[in-house]
Design a protein that fits this description.
By secondary structure, this protein is mainly α. About 70% of the residues lie in helices and about 0% in strands. The longest helix has about 45 residues, at about 15-60. The chain is rod-shaped, with a radius of gyration of 34 Å.
Length: about 90
């Protein structure tokens, strides 16, 4: 008699099977939607950053197609013996 109640507990009822099946199905569908959404969003963001980099790269060239120096670089190249550029000396106490 002691084995009869255990056999009843181990059996899966239709309700239990359906609940487990629905939970598993929802889990699989949620994972699939998440992965597909992540791939599409990542591809979209990468394309957007690529476009922004191309636009920024085209703005960074001078009229002759070369590199446009920053003002500090240009100032230092022309005034090497006069000390640091004025923008570096502001806001510092001696």
């Amino acid at each position: 008699m002691s084995s009869a109640p255990r056999a009843d507990r181990r059996r899966w009822t239709l309700r239990r099977k359906l609940v487990v099946a629905v939970v598993l199905l929802l889990t699989v569908v949620s994972l699939a939607i998440g992965l597909i959404g992540e791939v599409f969003i990542r591809d979209n963001l990468v394309a957007q950053v690529d476009s922004q980099l191309q636009q920024a790269g085209s703005r960074g060239h001078g009229p002759d197609g070369g590199h446009v120096p920053r003002p500090e670089q240009n100032w230092c190249a022309n005034n090497q013996q006069q000390g640091p550029p004025p923008s570096l000396g502001r806001g510092r106490s001696p």
